[in-house]
Every structure is written in structure tokens, then in C-alpha cells.
Specification:
mainly alpha; binds zinc ion; about 150 residues
Length: about 150
């Protein structure tokens, strides 16, 4: 087998389509011819067809089975993101509502406290002497005066 024949048969050799005799001739040539050996190595490095596994009859079904669930996962992801956004919006709304109620009650309490203070001030202003009054002496003194 000369160089030209080897070049022409390298692909068939890689595909394992040569008969035993041709195969041995080619291998013998590759051992002795550096140029053909280099070419063989280059082709073998890039010629990956023989690395592809044999496609079985149910290959398409298997691939589709693997693709469909991942699509479902993507769809669920989108749904989950939508759902999460709604939850986040609901939580945000609740937080705003709660803080609004909290602020309102705080204001109410402050107002109530202010009212209490004001009432106490008024009470102190008008009835301060009432505490020091002894009602018994008041009544007795009054009745004594009437006599
Ligand atoms: Zn050669």
C-alpha cells in the first residue's frame, strides 16, 4: 500500500471498515511512513465520529423524555417566580398596613396621653386645693357657722 492508497483509506480505517488484510497493510505503512503517520494522527484527533455512541431505536424518545421534564421545570420556575412576586407584594402590602396601623395607634396613644396630661393640668389648676381640704372640717365649720 503506497502513501496515496493509505491517505484514501485512512477514513475507512478509522471507521473500521477495512478488511483484515487492508488493515494490516495500512498499519504496517503507518509504522514506517512518518508523513502518513502524522496525517493519521491529525485525522484521528479531529475525526470523532467513531466516538459518537450508536444511536438506538428509542434514542429520540429518550431525548424527548429528558427534554420535556426540563421544560416543565422551566415552566414551574416561571410560575414560582410569579408566585414569589405575588407573595412578596402581599408581604409588602401587609407590612405597610401593619406599620400604618402601628403609626395610627401610636398617634392615638400620644394624643390620649396629651389629653390625660391636659386633664391633669386642668384638674391641678382648678382643684389643687381640694386635696388639702378636709371635708369633715368643711362640714363642721359650715354647720357651726349656721348655728
Ligand atoms: Zn506514507
Amino acid at each position: 500500500m503506497n502513501c496515496n492508497a493509505v491517505h484514501n483509506n485512512l477514513i475507512f480505517y478509522l471507521d473500521n471498515e477495512l478488511n483484515q488484510e487492508e488493515k494490516q497493510e495500512l498499519e504496517k505503512h503507518l509504522e514506517t511512513c512518518e508523513e502518513c503517520n502524522n496525517l493519521y494522527n491529525q485525522i484521528a484527533a479531529t475525526y470523532t465520529f467513531e466516538n459518537i455512541p450508536e444511536v438506538s431505536a428509542d434514542f429520540t424518545d429518550n431525548v424527548m423524555q429528558k427534554i420535556v421534564p426540563s421544560r416543565k421545570v422551566d415552566f414551574n420556575k416561571q410560575q414560582f417566580i410569579k408566585f414569589s412576586r405575588r407573595i412578596a407584594a402581599a408581604i409588602l402590602f401587609m407590612l405597610i398596613s401593619v406599620s400604618a396601623v402601628y403609626i395610627f395607634t401610636q398617634q392615638q396613644q400620644e394624643r390620649y396621653a396629651q389629653q390625660q396630661d391636659a386633664e391633669e393640668e386642668i384638674r391641678n389648676y382648678y382643684f389643687a386645693d381640694l386635696d388639702s381640704y378636709d371635708l369633715n372640717t368643711y362640714y363642721t365649720s359650715n354647720t357651726e357657722e349656721e348655728e
